Amino acid sequence: MPITLGQKIMKQLKNKSLTISQLSGILRKDEPSIRTTINRLKEKKLVSETGDFIDRYKIYKIADKSINAIFALNILMNIKGVKAVNLVTTEGIPVDTILPEGADPKNEMRYAAMTSAIVSLSERACRETKKGDLNLVLIEGQEGKLLVVGCGSEFVISLSLDDTISNEQLFTEYFKTIDIIRSTLVNLQED
Fold it and tell me: Could you tell me the residue range of the domain that residue 160 belongs to?
């Protein structure tokens, strides 16, 4: 799945705050395309203005509320058996990812794209089989599990779990923590 312009912008803004003009130069895209994408990211509250200006250009950064999301992801990452945690928009734009030490950073975009595809297909299956709104998706493999949980209408949490966690443990012990984090992230969307 190709990387979207929004994903490229978010990746650049993780490193430092930039203007539309600077993003245009770095990404080799015209300023109107960058501006349109920045406006979409602002609507989703993923990007905000810093309040500072370079010449006449506004400077954009990752939205402050994503700091709370990072804190939430760190809590999830500390659950025994969790190997990776990902928070993405429903369109597949990574907000933040915590991968195992030594993991290839390119996996962040792939992980976000896979999560988005899983959510899209699962939502369609729920709609077409009249099961209501998507709550969660659990994929179980021989060496572990992938749990994808919706967080409101805009975000999704994806957890990669090793094979030491049983389904009983997941839903009796760990899901309470996951649900608290999920509620926190839903509340951030409403602010």
Answer: 66-190
